[in-house]
Amino acid sequence: MNMHAQMHTAAEKALLDAYDQRMADLPGDSAVAVKRDNAIEMLKAGLPTKRIEAWHYTDLRRLLTSVPDFEPAGNAKALDPLIEGSAVLAILNGQTTGHLNNVEGVTVERVFEKLQNGSLAPALEPDGNDDAIGALNTAFVSDGWHVTVADGTELTTPLELQDTQDGGQVHLGLPVHIGNSVKATIVERHAGKRPGLTSCVTNLVVGDDSEVLWLIVQEQPEAATHLAQFNAWIGKNARLTVFVMNSGGKLVRQEIRVITKGEGSDFQLRGINLLAGETHTDVTMVLDHAVPNTTSRELIRNIVTGRAHGVFQGRINVHQIAQKTDAKMACNTLLLSDDGEFSTKPELEIFADDVACGHGATVTEIDKNHLFYLMARGIDEKTARGLLVKAFLAEVIEELEVESVVEALESRLDAWFATHG
Amino acid sequence: MLEIINLHAKIAGTDTEIIRGLNLTVNAGEVAAIMGPNGSGKSTLSYIIAGRDDYEVTEGDILYNGESILEMDPAERATAGIFLAFQYPMEIPGVATMEFLKVAMNEQRKARGEEPLKVPEFLKRVKEAAASLSMDMNMLKRPLNVGFSGGEKKRAEILQMKLLQPKLCVLDETDSGLDIDALKIVADGVNALRSPDRAVLVITHYQRLLDYIVPDKVHVLYRGQVIKSGDKSLALDLEKNGYAGVIGEAA
């Protein structure tokens, strides 16, 4: 990370102090403890600043101004599942709660126990010196659900990994192993009553010929800090679609890092960011097309109100052997206020010569012609604007095609508009 | 019903005057045609009546049922009963056509103090109106006007007009882009709306549409003014002899 010669910020100091105080209570065997110590050394060097390229638009050192204490006794409550009928695996204030009732082909274990017995130690590995989220999470990760889906399983109802909290600090790991020829929809949900600091690292392995829809729905309280990392490896002829929706938090960074490991694999990213108030939300994707004949599409839509600042960084690396890669990325933003801001950085790094890759980014206001057309039919300006903004976002949601998923996400949109519209 | 008095209007933020002292009266029960060469201000007039803010009225007034509408926004004018069938209807991705129709109908009902339509009643009305225009209901499942052909868009405009039941209908070059069969269907749709308490303003370049929607009055627009008014024979005369004669007379 950064080699600051200067003093630690208050937030850095709070994190280091918290580690000293919590060290003895954190779960894990000696192998885990070594990983934690290494991670804390990275944090000692300081949080990343805008001088680090991957953090250029999100100067974490400046933006992370305070760190709450640990409050494991908080009063979090489980929520109804996002999609009706889902099997919910709850995490309340950072602790796994309850169990999974007989979902065929799915086994779950507690990350707490897998830290205690050391079996997760090898997975605790920040990705280089700039991986602040990896380091923070490695230092403090305490629980989460470890999910295994057996070969050939077709999940008829979605599985929801539900993190709810009531202030304090929560550090989660969500390792999920999907076997071969699996069909599954999995919801990763983050919400809370009182703002806190959350770090969450999801590691998803998708086996050959599997088809996975992964929905990340982040609806943290307005003042929350949410630092998340989603890592995925996609097997041969497998399809992974990730949908990410950010509609909460004061300081949010969602990293999405995907590697196509098997030929014929496909990755789809769809995202919507609903940004309001004085908030900062960053979605950073790094996608590696690492083998020949893989495809990807990324479509991110943002609306920015108030004094919010949004960021999308999308980097696609096409490795030299990854011939016939077909990758397209687009990021469209509707700016609805004069003081809102959105920064987009698309990057293509291509080492293969027979590929089709492209990207595009737009920042626009509401189309005046569209607005006039709707108003000319008697729809008042506020309602007409609402329709157009929703239409802009609904296009991304409707592409998911599964009716129950589309309805669930649109209801979350409506909920956001009801309070911010 | 509609009275336009010495109207002057320019493109907002410029000095380009498009409407230059226009006077026009359209009575309830009347179908009036506005004809004129390209650039005479026909479409601009339709936009100004509908309330588009790209134009700025600098002088004169537009009275609708005796009251000025210049301070009303487009939605207020629409709920008061003014309807513009667009020359180029907007494609709006992401807005489902049926949802749009429902919101528009219910917003207008709300403004009139009426209860929103129940879903079965709404569907019944849309189905009836669509059938009368030979429109496939499947088309209405698509986003608003997206992927519609030119003719389909025009039919969709008339469909909206039928559903919203306006009092003053302004049709801006509704005939452009229509083949003869579609033209007949659209004209039948408009004729079905003719009634003693409704006025229709047909803006067109050609006489052709007026064979099917027979006007009570014809007004010739040139350089932002009505330079001649007459009955339907004026349209036939223009078709035969072009605009040059009329323009010459006025000059």
UniProtKB/TrEMBL annotation, chain A:
Pfam families according to UniProt: SUFBD_core
Q: Which InterPro entries match?
A: Fe-S_cluster_assembly_SufBD, SUF_FeS_clus_asmbl_SufBD_core, SUF_FeS_clus_asmbl_SufBD_sf, SUF_FeS_clus_asmbl_SufD
Q: Which domain of life is it from?
A: Bacteria
A Gene Ontology biological process term: iron-sulfur cluster assembly
| Limits of the SUF system FeS cluster assembly SufBD core domain | 174-392
Name the chain's protein: Fe-S cluster assembly protein SufD
The taxonomic lineage of its organism, from the top, reads: Bacteria, Pseudomonadati, Pseudomonadota, Alphaproteobacteria, Hyphomicrobiales
From TrEMBL, chain B:
Could you state a single Gene Ontology molecular function term? ATP hydrolysis activity
Q: Which residues form the signal peptide?
A: none
Keywords (alphabetical) are: ATP-binding, Nucleotide-binding
| Family matches, as InterPro entries | AAA+_ATPase, ABC_transporter-like_ATP-bd, FeS-cluster_ATPase_SufC, P-loop_NTPase
Q: Where is the ABC transporter domain?
A: 2-248
**Of which family is this protein a member?**
Belongs to the ABC transporter superfamily. Ycf16 family.
Among NCBIfam families, the record links this protein to: sufC
Q: Cross-referenced PANTHER family, in alphabetical order?
A: ABC TRANSPORTER I FAMILY MEMBER 6, CHLOROPLASTIC
- The protein here is known as Fe-S cluster assembly ATPase SufC
Q: To which species is this protein native?
A: Mesorhizobium denitrificans
What lineage, starting at the top, does this entry show?
Bacteria, Pseudomonadati, Pseudomonadota, Alphaproteobacteria, Hyphomicrobiales
State the encoding gene: sufC
